[in-house]
Task: inverse folding
C-alpha cells in the first residue's frame, strides 16, 4: 500500500495525479490549481495547503493508517478515472454538439441526414472498467467494434459518414409533389438588399427586382429569393415598402431592427423564434433599457422599441464619441450588448451582442441550405454603423454608386473603387460596384444566378 503526493505550491493541471489514480493509488495534492477539479471528479484523496507541513503529514498518515479510507479512495480512483479517458471526452463533446443541433433549425432534408449519421456513429456501451487501468490501459479509445456484434468497423463507419455528408440534397423536382409548392429552402440564390438610404430604398428595390426578372427571362424567377435587411422595425419596413411596387410578401425574409428580428412574410409575417432564442444569450433586457438614457445624451423612443431592440433618439452633436463612450461605460458595468447607429445617424439601436444583420444572413444560409457563396448582398456607399460588417464574408457584395444614407457618425467612410478603375473594392475581391439598371441585369447573368 502507498500514497501519491504532489505538494506543489501551484499545479496548473496535475496529470501525474491522474496517472497515479489509474494505478489505484490514493493521492494527497495541493489545494491550489488543477488538483481541486481532479479530486472533485475522482474523489480519491485529500487536498492540503502546501505551506502547512503538519497538514501534509496528517493527510499522509490518515490515508496510510485508515485502511477503509485507503481502499475507498483506491476504489473511487479506479472507478472514476474513466472520466478522463479520450472516449469520455468525445462523449461529452458530442453531447454538447447534439444539444446545439437539437436547438438549431434545419430543413427536412438535413434532419434526415442527421438521423442517418446517428445510425452510423452510434457506438455500443463500454464494458465495465477492470480492477486496474494497467490491465485495461487502452480504454477502447478507438471506435473499432467486434464484427461479431454486428457493428460497423472503423473503416466502414468512416466511409459511411463521408458518403452521407457528401451526398447532394435532392433537387426541387425530385421532392414529393404533395409538399408545399413554395419554400425558401428551394431557392438557388439569395438576393439580399441592405441599402440604408430609406428615401431611395423603394426605387432601389424595384430596380433590383426588375433586373432579376429581366435576367431570368420569366422562366427561372423562382430560383432567386429576396431578403430585405434594415435597421427599421417591422412596421416601419412595411411603410417603406408601401412606397414601392413590391409588397412584404414578395420577400422570403425581412431582417429588421439591425438584425435582432427575422420575419417571414409568406408565413403571415411570423417572427423566427429559433433565431430569437439564439440571440437571447446574455441579453440584459430591461436592465439596459433605462441605463442608456442615464449614461448618454439620448431619449428612448418607446414606439420603436422591440423586445430585443431598444431604440433611442441621439441628442449629442458628437455622435461617434458619444457611442464610443457609451460602449465603454456599458462594458465597465458588465452589460453586454451591441450599439448600432441607424436612420441617418439619428437613432441608436441597442441589440443583443449575438445579433447583427451579417449574423442573420449566416443564419438564413444554414437554415435554408443555401451556401453563402450563392448570396448577393446589395449595399449603398454609406449606411448604418454595421455597414462594413456586411461587406465581409463569403457572399458577393454589390455597392450601388450614388446611393448612401447621409451619416452623421464619423468613421463610416464610403466604399472606394481600386486605383485601376475596375469594379473591385479595396477591401475584398468579392465586392463590385454598379450603378445603372443595365449593370444590375448584367451582374445577375455574370454570377450565373439564372
Result:
Amino acid at each position: 500500500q502507498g500514497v501519491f503526493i504532489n505538494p506543489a505550491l501551484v499545479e496548473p493541471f496535475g496529470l501525474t495525479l491522474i496517472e497515479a489514480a489509474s494505478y489505484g493509488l490514493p493521492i494527497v495534492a495541493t489545494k491550489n490549481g488543477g488538483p481541486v477539479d481532479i479530486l472533485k471528479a475522482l474523489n480519491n484523496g485529500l487536498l492540503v495547503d502546501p505551506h502547512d507541513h503538519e497538514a501534509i503529514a496528517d493527510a499522509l498518515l490518515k490515508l496510510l493508517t485508515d485502511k477503509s479510507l485507503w481502499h475507498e479512495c483506491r476504489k473511487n480512483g479506479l472507478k472514476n478515472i474513466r472520466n478522463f479517458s479520450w472516449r469520455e471526452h468525445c462523449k461529452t463533446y458530442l453531447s454538447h454538439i447534439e444539444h446545439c443541433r437539437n436547438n438549431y433549425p434545419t430543413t427536412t432534408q438535413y434532419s434526415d441526414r442527421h438521423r442517418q449519421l446517428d445510425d452510423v456513429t452510434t457506438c455500443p456501451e463500454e464494458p465495465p472498467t477492470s480492477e486496474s487501468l494497467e490491465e485495461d490501459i487502452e480504454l477502447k479509445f478507438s471506435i473499432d467494434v467486434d464484427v461479431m456484434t454486428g457493428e460497423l468497423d472503423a473503416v466502414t463507419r468512416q466511409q459511411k459518414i463521408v458518403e452521407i455528408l457528401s451526398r447532394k440534397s435532392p433537387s426541387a423536382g425530385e421532392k414529393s409533389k404533395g409538399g408545399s409548392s413554395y419554400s425558401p429552402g428551394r431557392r438557388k440564390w439569395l438576393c439580399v438588399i441592405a441599402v440604408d438610404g430609406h428615401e431611395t430604398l423603394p426605387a432601389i428595390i424595384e430596380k433590383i427586382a426588375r433586373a432579376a426578372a429581366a435576367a431570368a427571362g420569366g422562366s427561372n424567377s423562382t430560383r432567386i429569393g429576396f431578403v430585405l435587411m434594415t435597421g427599421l422595425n417591422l412596421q416601419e419596413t412595411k411603410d417603406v415598402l408601401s412606397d414601392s411596387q413590391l409588397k412584404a410578401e414578395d420577400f422570403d425574409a425581412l431582417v429588421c431592427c439591425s438584425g435582432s428580428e427575422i420575419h417571414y412574410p409568406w408565413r403571415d409575417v411570423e417572427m423566427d423564434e429559433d433565431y430569437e432564442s439564439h440571440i437571447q444569450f446574455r441579453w440584459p433586457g430591461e436592465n439596459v433599457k433605462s441605463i442608456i438614457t442615464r449614461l448618454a445624451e439620448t431619449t428612448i423612443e418607446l414606439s420603436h422599441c422591440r423586445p430585443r431592440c431598444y431604440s433611442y433618439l441621439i441628442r449629442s452633436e458628437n455622435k461617434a464619441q458619444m457611442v464610443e463612450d457609451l460602449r465603454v461605460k456599458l462594458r465597465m458595468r458588465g452589460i453586454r450588448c451591441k450599439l448600432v447607429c441607424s436612420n441617418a445617424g439619428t437613432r441608436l439601436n441597442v441589440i443583443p451582442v449575438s445579433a447583427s444583420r451579417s449574423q442573420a444572413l449566416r443564419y438564413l444560409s444554414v437554415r435554408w441550405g443555401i451556401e453563402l457563396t450563392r448570396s448577393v448582398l446589395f449595399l449603398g456607399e454609406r449606411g448604418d454603423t454595421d455597414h462594413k460588417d456586411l461587406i465581409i464574408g463569403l457572399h458577393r457584395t454589390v455597392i450601388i454608386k450614388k446611393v448612401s444614407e447621409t451619416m452623421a457618425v464619423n468613421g463610416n467612410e464610403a466604399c472606394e473603387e481600386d486605383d485601376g478603375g475596375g469594379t473591385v473594392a479595396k477591401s475584398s475581391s468579392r465586392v463590385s460596384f454598379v450603378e445603372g439598371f443595365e449593370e444590375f441585369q448584367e451582374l445577375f447573368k455574370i454570377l450565373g444566378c439564372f
Summary: The longest strand covers residues 396-404. The longest helix spans residues 86-102. The domain at 4-84 is CATH 3.40.50.2000 (Rossmann fold). The chain has three domains: 4-84, 87-166, 186-450.
